[in-house]
Design brief:
This protein has an eight-stranded parallel beta sheet with strand order 1-2-3-4-7-8-9-10, with helices on both faces. By secondary structure, the protein is α/β, with parallel strands linked by helices. The protein is built from 22 helices and ten strands. The protein has a domain of 144 residues. α1 packs across α3. α17 links the parallel β8 and β9. The radius of gyration is 22 Å and the shape is globular.
């Protein structure tokens, strides 16, 4: 996530509510059919490990807009404007609970599903068009440095190209309709010879980082419950990573609650969600205020810049724990993170973490994704199944960054993260991976990115026996945030083309688009597979054949 992407994301979140007014179809779509664009059984296995199917009610809109900073340390809107944004957004987008009541689990027909899908988009497009034509909306957009034309297209068909308008429409959408959009977009390009067999979607928990512990319009337990229902309705086509927030856990153990919300244990909830099969892994977001490990080495006053009232009330130098006593905020964070990692190791649970140096509460917090903190983790918990989301801003590296050993050129976070990986699956770093989420430069600098990949895929760090990245890099789109990219449809096809040019034999493609994800997630012989089989049996999930989803049948065919 480079500075361009970071800016685009905040622009997206800020404008989503400012211009939509009453755009949503909450009362217009009574039922959402379960039919989805189908995967092709004859195409090779394809897994997208980095997706999001959420809307504005799932996020702390006011806090994100007014408190996260750009590369210069400045927020994108003041607190008054941000509060208005949240009020509007939370009032129009469907909550997870309301969507659950509308989502069918019966299949329905393809024709009826497409009819409902088009109706949803038509209603939304019409109302969005009305709002964008209002003078006040244009003034708000200009105030945030955006320009959206006052005259919108009269075409009510679902948008196939990205950009701000398309992203706005999707951002206030039902999540299952967003999934429909995603599969429709990437399942109909014959040039790729691929369809999406499995999409891994990630939830986030910003409550304690951004709003003093108060919950979102759609609380996390409702979000997880809806995503469970989506997993069932999609016949195992989508599975979810639950969010783990060590800040919430520290506050919970200290006996703190939000102003309007009772707190709960983040660790206990992710353990429940995973053990029940509702989620298959866990997502972390360090820039919101914690290092992945090694927090106890950081002076307590480092966290003063977050301006958390809840932490001031505790005193960051004397934070109580679950058994009483007192320790620094850094020690408490490492304490709960250590318990979390131990559980992940014991239960063989995959973890994904944001590793770009961006979107924190301040520029200092952005550095929590740096490789030095992952080095601290690797020394003690190096056998985790771990995915470095966005692979430390890999898209901003150049071919020359992968031709020399670490430390002899400029500081490159992506390269330092790859250096933590091991070719030996039983060694520390032997199950560390990285994904390609939001590598939008593939659409504008294809040859440069291809050259970078060619060098990175053959790079060997000091201490490594051979290049590890061919077995460790994963395909990720970062949908639906990818909708900000104008030519979003070409994103998937261009990655297919790039890998076919790098390796015409298809061996690297097979790993990048599917094989590496199977190993990372434990889908062939790991505990994740067993939990999923138990989940399918418990909820009587129906499949076309062999009582397995298509992605599982494709794995078996390769074994």
């Amino acid at each position: 996530m480079d500075n361009r992407w970071s800016h685009s994301r905040r622009r997206f979140f800020t404008s989503a509510a400012l211009v939509t007014g009453a755009t949503l179809l909450n009362g217009c779509v009574r039922r959402i059919p379960a039919w989805l664009p189908q995967a092709n059984p004859d195409y090779p296995l394809t897994i997208d490990v980095h997706c999001h199917f959420f809307n504005g009610t799932d996020l702390e809109m006011a806090g994100f807009i007014s408190r996260t900073v750009n590369d210069q340390g400045k927020p994108w809107a003041g607190p008054d404007a941000a509060a208005v944004v949240q009020d509007i957004e939370w009032g129009i987008a469907p909550t997870a609970k309301s969507e659950k009541s509308k989502l069918k689990t019966s299949e329905g027909s393809r024709e009826k599903a497409r009819e409902k899908w088009r109706k949803a988009h038509a209603v939304q497009s019409n109302k969005l068009r009305e709002q964008l034509q209002k003078p006040g909306a244009q003034a708000d957009l200009r105030a945030h440095g955006m320009a959206v034309p006052t005259k919108q297209s009269n075409n009510n068909e679902p948008v196939k190209n990205g950009g701000l308008e398309a992203a706005l429409k999707e951002y206030v959408q039902f999540r299952y309709v967003a999934l429909f959009d995603y599969l429709e977009l990437y399942n109909n390009d014959p040039s790729t010879n691929r369809t999406i067999d499995l999409a891994i979607t990630h939830l986030v928990d910003y409550d304690w980082a951004l709003s003093e512990g108060d919950r979102t319009r759609s609380p996390l337990n409702d979000q997880v419950e809806l995503m469970k229902r989506i997993s069932i309705a999609s016949h195992g086509r989508v599975h979810t990573f639950a969010p783990f927030c060590p800040l919430r856990e520290v506050a919970f153990r200290a006996g703190l609650h939000g102003k309007h919300t009772r707190n709960w244990s983040s660790l206990q909830m992710v353990q429940k969600w995973v053990s029940d099969g509702e989620c298959i892994g866990v997502k972390m977001y360090p820039p919101m205020g914690f290092a992945p490990y090694g927090n106890e080495q950081i002076p307590p006053d480092f966290w003063d810049s977050a301006k958390w009232q809840w932490l001031k009330n505790l005193d960051p130098r004397n934070v109580p724990g679950k058994n009483g006593g007192a320790a620094t905020i850094g020690q408490r964070l490492d304490e709960v993170l250590g318990e979390f990692y131990e559980w992940c190791l014991k239960e063989d649970v995959p973890v994904m973490a944001h590793t770009d140096l961006s979107n924190g509460l301040n520029t200092d917090f952005n550095t929590f994704t740096a490789a030095k903190y992952w080095t601290a983790l690797a020394s003690k918990y190096g056998k985790l199944r771990l995915n470095f989301g966005h692979l430390g801003d890999f898209e901003d590296t150049t071919a020359s960054d992968w031709t020399t050993p670490p430390g002899t050129t400029r500081d490159v976070n992506a390269r330092d993260l790859v250096a933590l990986m091991s070719a030996d699956a039983t060694a520390s770093g032997g199950r560390f991976y990285g994904d390609s989420g939001y590598t939008d430069c593939i659409l504008t600098k294809f040859e440069d990115l291809k050259n970078t990949y060619e060098k990175a895929l053959t790079w060997t760090a000091p201490g490594q026996s051979r290049p590890v990245l061919p077995d460790r890099i994963l395909y990720g789109s970062d949908w639906s945030l990818l909708m900000l990219v104008d030519d979003m449809k070409a994103y998937f096809a261009e990655f297919v083309r790039m890998y076919s040019e790098i390796d015409p034999t298809g061996k690297l493609s097979a790993k990048f688009f599917g094989g590496n994800a199977v190993e990372y997630l434990g889908l062939q012989d790991g505990r994740t597979r067993k939990r999923l089989l138990d989940f399918y049996a418990k909820y009587q999930v129906k499949f076309e054949k062999d009582q397995q989803p298509m992605w599982m049948r494709k794995i078996a065919a390769k074994a």
